[in-house]
Amino acid sequence: MVASIRARPPEAVAGSRSPTGREAVIIPHSDPRPPRLAAALQEDVPVSHHIELPPLPFAMDALAPVISSETLSFHYGKHHKAYVDNLNKLVAGTDLEHAPLEKIIAAVAGHADKVGVFNNAAQTWNHTFFWNSLKPGGGGAPTGAVLPAINAAFGSYDNFKKEFSNAAMTQFGSGWAWLVAERGALRIMKTPNADTPLTTGQTPLLTIDVWEHAYYLDYQNRRADFVAAVIDKLLNWEFANANLARSG
Ligand code: FE2
């Protein structure tokens, strides 16, 4: 699954987030871009959609009650879809129009003038990775190769759980908590906003979305309850093991 959603970057337009976390595209009055690109950024102009919104790997109500179908329908059907739609508009008419997602992310990462493309591309990738990090009936202690790796890195599953929860809780504002592999060892990291380990050399194994839109309908401000429930009941350790096997 990781291989199918890896990708990189193009020309950007500054994006901004509303209080709900949705990306809004700002179109300057004097737009220096080619007319086709400028036009494509208008909401009602059809553009080629070479990056597609992948189907969820489970039914909309399959993660309840940890994540309700209402939360999932907004999170996937509105937020994730908006990132995909904005990305397709932003790359239309550029040399990245037909580039795979991971190529788009790599091409625009670190370019201040392309932050809009990066944000939408990375959020597209991060969310697909997040859905695959979850499964109905998941969570709890892992099995497979990831278990001894966790014991080696953190001492025990319980210590891993504390450190993963702490990363998710201490990510100020919007962002992500990650279990990653780096040079043969596991570690936990957190990233703000759309930032992703793809651009810093680690191999992601699992992630938890801690943007408020991930939990607010179900948990309001109780991020800790959401994180604990995801770790205990939803983490997809088979996905983590598959990613670990590919990490080299
Ligand atoms: Fe999200």
Structural commentary:
This protein has helices at residues 2-5, 35-40, 69-91, 101-108, 115-132, 146-154, 157-170, 216-219, 223-233, 237-246; strands at 7-8, 15-17, 23-25, 175-182, 185-192, 203-209. The protein has a three-stranded antiparallel β-sheet with strand order 5-4-6. The chain folds into two domains: 2-41 and 65-132, Fe,Mn superoxide dismutase (SOD) domain (Helix Hairpins); 146-246, 3-Layer(bab) Sandwich (minor pseudopilin epsh fold), CATH 3.55.40. Helix 3 runs antiparallel to helix 5 and helix 4 (101-108) packs across helix 5 (115-132). With 248 residues, the protein is of the alpha+beta class. Fe (ii) ion (FE2) binds at residues 75, 79, 127, 209, 211, 213-214. Fe (ii) ion binds next to helix 3.
Tell me the name of the CATH class of the largest domain: Mainly Alpha
Describe the sheet with the most strands. Answer: 3 strands, antiparallel
Radius of gyration: 18 Å
- Helical residue percent? 40-55%
In total, how many beta strands?
6
Average pLDDT metric: 85
Individual helix count: 10
Structurally, the number of domains stands at: 2
Q: Which hetero ligands occur in this complex? A: fe (ii) ion
Low-confidence stretches: 1-46
SSE class: alpha+beta
- Helix and strand sequence: HEEEHHHHHHEEEHHH
Distance between the termini: 16 Å
Side-by-side strand order of the widest sheet: 5-4-6
Strand proportion, as a percent range, falls in 5-15%
Coarse morphology: globular
CATH superfamily of the largest domain: Fe,Mn superoxide dismutase (SOD) domain
The CATH topology of the largest domain is Helix Hairpins
What is the CATH-assigned architecture of the largest domain? Orthogonal Bundle
